[in-house]
Design brief:
outer membrane lipoprotein receptor (LolB), chain A, about 15% helix
Length: about 240
């Protein structure tokens, strides 16, 4: 598909991506979704180390630098800095609490949520080239004065994601600028910009999640999720 090929080439190319196995990020994650759950500073100034090939991310420095949290498809763990396992959630899923408790109030749910989000964020658009991901190009979208090309992606059940169906928007340079999907009962749009090249892989270093209206327009406030990547290393 021409658009997907353009997006992958714009981010460094599939040959370069397939030569890599790991990434390390220095980043901060915040926003009203975190502060409303009582975790305003849980993921401020943390290190994320993960695999480019399997769903795996380890966060060091969460909870004020006192703990680490690991996301894998079959288990979430919270550990002390010396490696002692404090909590484990086996076979995690997107079935967050519906009893009135905030979906991210529990730290294991928070680590799970951030793990899925950051891993998907770092592996797109290469993730969309997987043979089990179904993509189709949609009509162009007018975003203010720009025309963005769009892809709808349907993810397999074997791949943990925040939504099984998502729409990705790419600007005139084929760089990803927006992603739409449902999240925790709401429609959201993730905007991304400030792309930088790290070891030949181009990554948007700023990402902001806003509520999306039925007509796909967005509401500027509150900012649900705010991600800033300060540095990235791919190996």
């Amino acid at each position: 598909m021409a658009l997907l090929d353009d997006a992958i080439d714009a981010c460094g190319g599939l040959t370069r991506w397939n030569s890599l196995s790991r990434f390390t990020l220095h980043l901060s994650v915040g926003g009203s979704l975190f502060s409303d759950a009582g975790h305003a500073r849980e993921f401020k100034d943390v290190t994320a180390e993960g695999s480019t090939r399997t769903q795996s991310v380890r966060f060091t420095g969460i909870t004020g630098g006192e703990q680490s949290g690991a996301f894998q498809a079959d288990a979430i763990t919270i550990e002390s800095l010396d490696g002692q396992v404090l909590r484990t959630w086996r076979n995690p899923s997107l079935d967050f609490p519906t009893n009135g408790t905030h979906a991210l109030a529990d730290e294991v749910h928070l680590v799970f949520f951030c793990g899925v989000q950051i891993w998907t964020y770092l592996t797109t658009p290469f993730l969309l080239a997987r043979p089990d991901v179904v993509v189709e190009e949609l009509p162009p979208w007018q975003e203010n004065s720009e025309t963005w090309r769009c892809l709808r992606a349907q993810f397999p059940s074997s791949l943990i994601n925040l939504a099984s169906e998502q729409v990705f928007y790419f600007d005139e340079n084929a760089l990803q600028r927006r992603t739409d999907h449902d999240l925790l009962g709401a429609r959201v749009a993730h905007y991304s910009w400030a792309h930088e090249s790290f070891g030949g892989i181009v990554v948007p270093t700023l990402r902001r999640t806003l509520t999306r209206q039925p007509d796909a327009a967005v509401i500027a406030k509150p900012v649900l999720i705010d991600v800033e990547i300060f540095d990235a290393v791919f190996e």
